[in-house]
Task: structure prediction
Amino acid sequence: MIERTLVILKPDTVQRGLVGEIIQRIEKTTLKVVAMKMVYASKEQAGEHYADDQEWLISVGEKTLKSAEKKGIKLSRTALEQGQWVRQMLMNYITMSPSVVLVIEGHSAVAKIRMLCGGTSPQEATPGTIRGDYAVDSYMLADASERPVQNLIHASGTIEEAKREIKIWFTDNEIHVFKRVDEDLIYRKGSS
Ligand code: ADP
Ligand code: MG
Result:
């Protein structure tokens, strides 16, 4: 199924000069870049993107608590408190320095891009993934330093999340309709 997903190359990617490197990885999969721009996110965009949504906040917190538990560390915050704290740090971070936002389109785009990204914590992300290859940060280091995990890239987690997020960053006429030259091959029918 052809899907669209939102990617943000976060301030650490822009500051480290890894924008081209990461976009190249995405393009090489044959997924198509259909929108792209550099933005200084506003407080409103940051607040909408990292929504004050209980379910998401708890899921963010739970990932951190589980990772700490594996290391034998017991955190004093609840999952919700941890998620709320991370949200504040993310909103500050993404408004402090420019990011590059993109819409990526193609077969299974949402899951494929998430696989390219690798796990949330670069320390635990598989080598070969973007976060695994270009970063070493961890929940513990980030939390001790009172900043978000620097994992270079945001990618929508589900098709619904992608639809909601794309609207925050792009108007309809900023998303382009065109054909890549390799599409005839990629989406070829058996008889042709
Ligand atoms: P993902 O980006 O893999 O979808 P989440 O949606 O769970 O991850 O979290 C959003 C972002 O919040 C992460 O990409 C990361 O930058 C940051 N983050 C998550 N947990 C923590 C934490 N415990 N401490 C600092 N930053 C965190
Ligand atoms: Mg997420």
